[in-house]
Amino acid sequence: MTRTTALLSGAMASLALAACASKPKPAPEVPAAKESAHAAGSSAAPGGPKRAMSIADYYHVAGVSAPALSHDGKHVAFAVKHQDLESGKSGSEIWIADVDGAHARALTNGKKNDSGPSFSPDDKTLLFSSNRSGSGQLWTMPTDGGEPKQLTDFAPGLDSPLWSPDGRFIAASTGLYPEAGLDVEGNGRIQKGLDEGKLKVHVADSLLYRHWTSWADGKAAHIVLVDAQAGKVVKDLTPGAWESPIFELGGGRGFDFSPDGKELCYASNHEEHPAETTNADLWIVPVDGEVKTDTAVNITASNKGWDGEPLYSPDGSSIAFISQATPAYESDLKRLAIYDRKSKSIDYVTARASFDDMVEDMRWTHDSRSLVFQADRRGRNPLFRVPKSGGKPAQVLVHGT
Fold it and tell me: pLDDT tier at 31 (50, 70, 90 boundaries)?
């Protein structure tokens, strides 16, 4: 098997593995991109003269998603995206491999867009998003291979699924018209009016009305609860007109379940004019019981800067997250912070005086005593380890590129 010329998620693979073992294992090998005639003809021969990279070369590279680590620490699952320059089409497939890169194999065929794989709590099932039914839905398949099965059929579509630790539910993101909520027919009527109306314009009375080529048109991101067995959407966990989770360039962890599966923490900006502030906060909401617009509790209200990327500790005592102190300043230093669920207090594990680098992502160690995190430093993104109680972060891994 050939190693792809671009491994987009090596740091993330190492981050997950470093939190599980004292010596991180190498990231798995990934397949080379599927070759089109145009791309093959434009590629430089091995050992040949150097030349500038062309757009055809770029399309010839397979893109690898961030990996998902199985709960037993033995396997990783990831998506591999292929693009064809001549046809203008792309597709992605789900792969699985041992953590040392051995036995890597594709589980789906890549004719559609299969993405975001994750392991069920018992590691027997893979959950992923796919448009193979015509809209974004959740699909499952056995970890050891087999035919994928469609789990959901929710007309507004679903993405970014996350298993609850007890396996009862799946949290997923969707786009809903706040006035319709979970009413599928109501959402459909509004969408049909926009699609088939005589007036072909986009109307907006506030900012943040578009991300790239995607128009909001009155929709807001919501987190919904899905029955993991029946595939039915049973609850809107974030009712209201707010974007939940918040939009992040390049994606990010917008929500997380508590280890007992009874609570969800998510990032959302509830300011009246969210385009004028970066004040996203972390909110917690119970999984069981009725959820109203005022049910969620803001646990970072004291900080008027940005808070996001929540991650519960394995023992359930804490929530790690990334925080910025300065309001309305998107380039402010990103700090590693920990919320104590019992005392409801926040400790900033890194600060400018002791660690003047941007923290990008983190993972708890299994004993909940330390965090392994990734940071930007001098053009690299090494991994660091720091005790939960604080102290000087120790560098544990650095990439050569």
Answer: low
Q: For the residues 159-170, what does the mean pLDDT come to?
A: 96
Q: Which two tokens stand for residue 370?
A: 């330390």
Q: What is the pLDDT of residues 301-345, one digit of tens each?
A: 999 999 999 999 999 999 999 999 999 999 999 999 999 999 999
pLDDT tens readout for residues 40-73: 444 456 667 899 999 999 999 999 998 999 999 9
